[in-house]
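Researcher: Here's the sequence for the chain we discussed earlier.
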Amino acid sequence: MVHLEPSESVQHPAHASGLLGLHGVDGLNDSSHRVQALRAWLDSQLDLKLTPLSLPNSTLDLAIYQPTVESRAELFAQARASSDRQLPYWADIWPSGLALGGVVLEHADFLAGKQVLEVGSGLGTTAAATLRTGANVLAVDYTPLALGLCRYNALANVGRSPRTLAINWRNPTRPAIIRLAAAGPFPIIMAADVLYESRDIDPLIRLIDRFLAPDGHLWLSEPQRKVSGRFLDTLALRGWRFTSHTEEGPWADGRTEPINIHFLRRELQSDRPYSTLGGWRV
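Model: Thanks. This is the structure I predict for it:
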């Protein structure tokens, strides 16, 4: 499914053009009718609360708008009743996104000016940090609500907006693939906490194979799930090389789980550097 392009909109009756076409806006202020329209649309869809948080190893503090507990419960109920059961994990602020955002800021010089594809953008924590470095971001997720919040949070926190594209990477449509191909290939693809089930592995690898530049970098942040280990094993067998390190909590919500950050690149020869993987093998 595909809903959004940089200058396209969600078909909302209050504002039928430009709701999410915010790329290039210099800041979030009352004079921007498109920012106001985006917030009005978000408020018409769910109730929001503001959550302050800090990114690890950085001086960047963020204030992220996210669904309230009640709105989140309603989103999950709707998803469980739908045919595709795409659960709205995007509605939470996850430690993996915070950890990746901190790493992004540590590599600001490397990222500045580059084109970045973020898979599973969620509420926009990592996108905001990446935009702060001077990179340009195309954020993809499967629902316009997540993408709308990603854009709004990025504008509210760093005064810049990512381009957005709604795509279900488990089963992407041809129009979505065409639009993503037109924007790529990308020198950097980022993803935080996108591997939940074994069925996520092959579709994610296909997406990366297709849209990552031949000499590109994949940055993956994950909370040491077994499925992530299988994903990394699969890439190692295909000739990818990677290094990793672990970020420790506690995180903004009080969770203390360690998060692994993996830096991956394709290689001609298979290389399985298990000794450097920061404990992901379980």
